[in-house]
Design brief:
The chain is of the alpha+beta class and 111 residues long. The protein has two helices and ten strands. The chain has a five-stranded antiparallel sheet. Strands 8-9-10 form a three-stranded antiparallel sheet, with no helix packed on it. Strands 1-2 form a two-stranded antiparallel sheet. It is globular, with a radius of gyration of 14 Å.
């Protein structure tokens, strides 16, 4: 049985159904695989501690992504990560090496 993460009120999500989270000032928007969006009055920093144990990574100060939903990534001048819903999130210079290391470790584990 998949774990549930309590977000607010009676709203819970299953980590694998979350594609990414986006920061908007003191709010966060959760993008789901079914196309739904959930807006929370919680910071991304608060949510990061909850989601990281479930395979999430913070590639940029404004995003927290589910590594299972990464389609492709670009490490060149236009550093970005493309997700299954065709959204592209920015990959900061400082997080580039961490992301590359996590992705290569993950590929090694699955082969």
């Amino acid at each position: 049985m998949s774990p549930k993460i309590h977000l607010v009120g009676k709203t819970t999500v299953t980590p694998e159904n979350v594609i990414f989270l986006k920061a908007e000032a003191n709010y966060s928007e959760v993008f789901m695989t079914d196309g739904k969006r959930i807006v929370l009055s919680r910071t991304l920093k608060e949510l990061e501690g909850i989601f990281v144990p479930y395979g999430f990574f913070r590639p940029h100060k404004s995003f927290l992504i589910n590594l299972e939903h990464v389609v492709s990534c670009s490490f060149h001048s236009d550093r970005h990560i493309e997700l299954i819903n065709n959204n592209k999130v920015e990959l900061s210079r400082r997080k580039k090496n961490d992301f590359f290391e996590i992705r290569s470790t993950k590929k090694t584990l699955h082969t």
